[in-house]
From TrEMBL, chain A:
Keywords: ATP-binding, DNA damage, DNA recombination, DNA repair, DNA-binding, Helicase, Hydrolase, Nucleotide-binding, Nucleus. CDD domains: KU80. Residues 278-419 form the Ku domain. GO terms for molecular function: ATP binding; damaged DNA binding; DNA helicase activity; double-stranded DNA binding; hydrolase activity; telomeric DNA binding. Gene3D superfamilies: 1.10.1600.10, 2.40.290.10, Ku, C-terminal domain, von Willebrand factor, type A domain. This is ATP-dependent DNA helicase 2 subunit KU80. One of its GO terms (cellular component) is Ku70:Ku80 complex. It is found in: Nucleus. Its EC number is 3.6.4.12. One of its GO terms (biological process) is double-strand break repair via nonhomologous end joining. It comes from the Eukaryota. InterPro entries: DNA_bd_Ku70/Ku80, Ku80, Ku_C, Ku_C_sf, Ku_N, Ku_PK_bind, SPOC-like_C_dom_sf, vWFA_dom_sf.
UniProtKB/TrEMBL annotation, chain B:
Keywords: ATP-binding, DNA damage, DNA recombination, DNA repair, DNA-binding, Helicase, Hydrolase, Nucleotide-binding, Nucleus. The lineage of its organism: Eukaryota, Viridiplantae, Streptophyta, Embryophyta, Tracheophyta. PANTHER family: KU AUTOANTIGEN DNA HELICASE, X-RAY REPAIR CROSS-COMPLEMENTING PROTEIN 6. Its EC number is 3.6.4.12. This is ATP-dependent DNA helicase 2 subunit KU70. SUPFAM superfamilies: SAP domain, SPOC domain-like, vWA-like.
Amino acid sequence: MARNKEALLLLIDVGPSMHSVLPQLQKVCSMLLQKKLIYTKYDEVGVVLFGTEDTNNDLTTEVGGYQHVVVLKNIKVVDGDIVEALQELPRGTVNGDFLDAVIVGMDMLIKKFGETNKGKKRLCLITNAQCPIKDSFEGTKEEQVTTIAKQMTVHGMRMESIILRGKLTQDANKRIMDENDRLLNIFSKETSTRLLYVEDSVSLFGALKTRNVTPSSIFRGDLELSPKLRIKVMVYKKTVEEKFPTLKKYSDKAPPSDKSATHEVKVDYEYKSSEDNDKVVPPDQRIKGYRYGPHIVPISAAEWDAVKFKPEKGVKLLGFTDSLNVLRQQYMKDVNIFIAEPGNTKAILAVSALARAMKEMNKVAILRCVWRQGQGNVVIGALTPNVSDRENIPDSFYFNVLPFAEDVREFQFPSFTNFPPSWQPNEQQLEAAANFIKMLDLTPQGSEEVLLPDFTPNPVLERFYHYLELKSKHLDAAVPPLDDTLKKITDPNADLLLQNKSVIDTFRTSFELKENPRHKKSRRLLREKWAVSNEEEGKGGITAQPANLIEYTSTVKVENIGDLTPVQDFEAMISRRDSPDWVMKAIKDMKNKIFDLVEDSHEGDNYPKALECLVALRKGCTLEQEPKQFNDFLRHLCNFCQEKNLRSFCEYLASNGLALISNTEAADSEVSDVEARNFLVKHEPKVE
Amino acid sequence: MDFDADDFFRDDDDDLHNQFSLEKETSKEFVVYLVDASPKMFTTTSPSEEEGKDETHFHIATSCISHSLKSQIINRSYDEIAICFYNTREKKNIQDLNGVVVFNVAEREFLDRPNARLIKEFDSIEETFSKNIGSKQGIVSATRENSLYNAIWVAQALLRKGSAKTVDKRMLLFTNEDDPFGSMNGAIKSDMTRTTLQRAKDAQDLGISIELLPLSCPDEVFNVSQFYADLIGLEGDHLVDFMPSAGNKLEDMKDQLRKRMFTKRIVKRIKFMIANGISIDLNSYALIRPTVPGAITWLDSVTNRPLKSERTFICADTGALVEESSRRFHPYKNQNITFSMKELIEIKRVSTGHLHLLGFKPLNCLRDYHNLRPSTFLYPSDEGMDGSMCIFVALHRSMIQLNRFALAFYGSSSRPQVVALIAQDEVIQSGGQIEPPGIHMIYLPYSDDIRLIEERFSDSSGMVPKASDDQIKKAADLIKRIDLKDFSVCQFANPALQRHYAVLQALALEEDEIPEMKDETLPDEEGLARPGVVRAIEEFKTSIYGENYDEESEQPAGKPSETSRKRKAIAEFATKECGNYEWGDLADTGKLKDLTVVELKYYLAAHDLPVSGKKEALISRILTHMGK
């Protein structure tokens, strides 16, 4: 069976103080199991509740005690039944004792697996740790916790404690909380325990690690500082993008009665000669061709192997450099982590010394890496220190790939200092901006950072899992709206905006958004624009020569349709006669403009303008004998509006009597008078 | 609304794709390089003799062009170019005008895609120039000959091809003569000036842009306003900063020229929603993207003709040919859940396609592992409103001042993502822009994208060794010794890519030898062998490893790792098992195929051969090994 199969025991506090967050917890936990159903469906899961009215666990029956702990689901392979149970967690009535729950959980895991499955047994404790645990019979609470933690290590269990704080809890006794924090800290020190404090619902969604991928190293060997000094390291991926699952193509050809049908679609590729369409070329008769300009150079795999670049495996230091020489935006890919070989004290020390020195001096190391023998390329990257502030976690490095010379496109952009004065903010505007930035702070004092990537779930994936679950019950369920919690990731926090309304308003009023009158002119010659704004000075600067008699700064011809006077622009453009292309360009640009207007319209505020444009376009198309252009466009636009819930626009057009161009107006039109007039009217009820 | 399924299901490289599609549709580029070849271009006026270099402006111009051709053939080989010299002795052009030579090679149109031969021959232009083309001042008062006029005319005629709508047409003019008609006077001068300017204006009216790449001598700065400001339509402020404060070094000049020869391409237009209805328009650019060797085309090995690939869909249950299905499915709880494309697109649409500001954080909240893909550069669109430009500049400046970055949600259709927006101030070095001013958009990982490696290797005994102050000090000494002072990110060429194209070029030109490339990425062995460095390394080594480092590292085989022990055990077992078979007999009688794959692998493992592949591959590998 699957190598990464893990056993997970959820220990959930359902006591009275937890009631307010239980709805969210239900979502989070069932989401966790749904993901397991998708990715690791052989994993085993059990659920233990504490703080319940009832008591139901083996330890009570065997040795007594352990009140108010209920085993909701025994450990079993994950299935829909557990998902459902988690969606309806009972509300408890008693203050729960998390230590009891931990012991019950450990007991279950030991009974079920004994010494086996080392490292793949996981306890996940979710509580707000606001209620005191019972005093132990012998020794202090600390000693008791230490003993339990030791046992946990012996049996190869991991624990994850998710502690709800901040917005997720009410006020509670500070002393008890501190004591509990101290106790929980013992777990994190003594065992491989992640201790997480979660302050808002978004982080709660993100905190539960769902896929426990066993990482595999991409490199093991020496970090070579010089031929004489090598440090044993292992390199792992630190970030890897979790992709949207690849769905298979569905075939409905199999009869519905066929229960064993796979419904899969196989994709077959055949290579055919370009001259003779029926001739299939077998794989051994194909040869790879590489493009070099217009040439395609054929090279067989064997030839290529003989000549291609073959670097030696190894990770070598090129040197250290100031961290300012490497900019954040130059990181190219997902990130790797370099850790010293575990158990190799000397290597751990060497990494630690380098990392700490680099951090102190603000330096990064530049490395040249070839991870595997036979790899076709080298990687240049920057090693940055990752100094650990926890006693049981060694120092390490992060490694980011840097670009090669070929990868950098050296585009030039106008300097802000060269912008015309109207684009330069004044003192007051700068202050408004600075205030705005300061107030919209996501790292409020005294609480955790908001939307920390490490705790931010992927809204698309979460939504997909949710939808999958819905569909498994009702095949034709509609896509659910984005969960309110997840909306906090995609949209600005409404509370934060409300709190700072006055700052935002000041910011807004400091910058009056008026349309740029210059933007009509050619975009390509940006400099021309400045030339216009500096017309006066420019003219003075150049000595009068006969050449200047040529009208150089004459009226710039309209080449684009702007926002301000689209109709006029369109008319000017369509009547330009220096090239026949202008007519088509004018029509095309106008269409785009109309689309933009309709699409950006808020409760119909752009409709009058859009209609104006449409009328102009209609006139232009009639004059230029391009009725098809207009008619097709109008049909397309209407279809678009029907689908986009902008039906009100079609109604608006109909009420203003806009019609297709008929063949009486323009001979080329294929539309009759009646058809033209009825277009919008009859179009309404049905969607084409 | 119709949709393209692939559009929504392709990978994270959507920037890359978008960019390519944008390039194909709108901005194919036709470029004519106009190079002044007058005697003045050949004088070596550079005072950089202390560097032992003796370069002419002509050399700078041609080497820039050659460089840009080489990168163009890799990146954008569909663009078409022509190279045109003026002020020449010979003439070669369609109009048969004096003093203008269009440089070309066999089997190529004047304006065409660059090919291997062109690049190769242009590389040796300086040797062949005087023989085949020759330099000669072509603006002569007496004969009213005007080679600049001719050159623009020739270039314009070359660029007549293709429609201005789909193609970007440019002339790039290299010259060191700021006053081409300076030697004339009176009516002739004004007449020549006027006709030349008119010629240029006509070209510009046809949608051709003319760009000037001036080369100035150190003692005499190129004065754009003498003549060329009118030709290319420069005025006012822009005139002032057109010539970057005269970078005197030739290397810089080369660098700057090279940068100017590429036009920017917008990847996407993005609306940045700030708050309460304030929004500004931004253009996004891909400033850094990995360059990869071009796509593979399959050829028929007999005819070397390209092959067409055809895709067919076959129903796995019935074997019937089917149309590409618009439904997808995913197994879940023992059933197949099907989705329509529309539903899948809807799932991904968690936000409008815009960029929504969420708030601000101090820069140190952006950790080094918060990265997934190359960043995207944002610059305000000049089509927007005055106020929005102003907002952008104000936010940009304040973010830099307050050391903060903005957190935003970017709702692209392929992977909606949380992004960090970092303001980058303009960096200018020796007259050239090193970093453009603007905002970099960095794609942040989600919690599921981050792996907890450190925790996994935490020590359950509670304590791991951390370096002592003395050890840190030794490390600091070492770091000081091996310091790359002027490190710049793009100083290394990608050796694999260079090799790839060197091989292709050699094969395309049917050369026998493939030139050896220098791998710039290797460490500087000499530098590391300097006594100071060696001493620092030794001291650091001693402080960490004690005296016996060498013994430790010399005996890595002393305690083999678990995996290697396992591997060894397997090999031993295989050797033992292997002895049970009469391999020679089996092979001779063709009975190898009767064995199981496991059995076949005994032989392979025992003889240290790869054990991968299908059964047939294994058998053929065994036969080859036995020499049969």
